[in-house]
# Entry
Amino acid sequence: MTDAIADAKRAMRAELRERRHLLSDHARETAEAGIQAQLDALIAERDVRSMSCFLSTTTEPGTRKFVTDAVARGIRVLLPVTRNDGLLDWAVATTDGDISEGLFGLPEPVGELLGPIAVNDVDLLVIPAAAVDASGMRLGWGRGFFDKTLGSMERCPPVYAVVYDSEVVDEVPREVHDQRVTGVVTPTRTLTLAPTRR
# Structure
């Protein structure tokens, strides 16, 4: 990573993190309802039976209600569990599952862990992001878990990143290992930005 790209990524993440911290409780609740509606429409359109999603932190666009409702409707949802080696394990979401604090303070499910390849058979991946640009390039939070996961998948289903509306930007700094996403889900819209990865 060149210093210039690393510095640009750090600066952009810091600005986006600050903006998220300044959101009001009402704005967060409105965003969560919007994300749920957009994700419900996306899984209906794509006839999703099995997917991955993530448990949102307090500053991320809310996904938890969507996950709970999707599981209650019979959709198999895999949730990521961080590992020290930079890969992700997966656990099947349940309607009454316990949540603990994983690496980096991220909310993660408690339960039987499935290995990194468990996600290979899902119909849709829904992942977090700091920002996504018009070409589908995703800026993550710098830990590389999802870039490694996407880069290692032999047959990758559609991948949608969840961000706030203001985080769909013209361009994000990128490096060779950074992975594009198929599209982006915001509280008000779902955009398809790049072809499904193979």
Q: What stands out?
A: Helices lie at 3-21, 25-45, 64-72, 145-152. The CA atoms of residues 51 and 123 lie 5 Å apart.
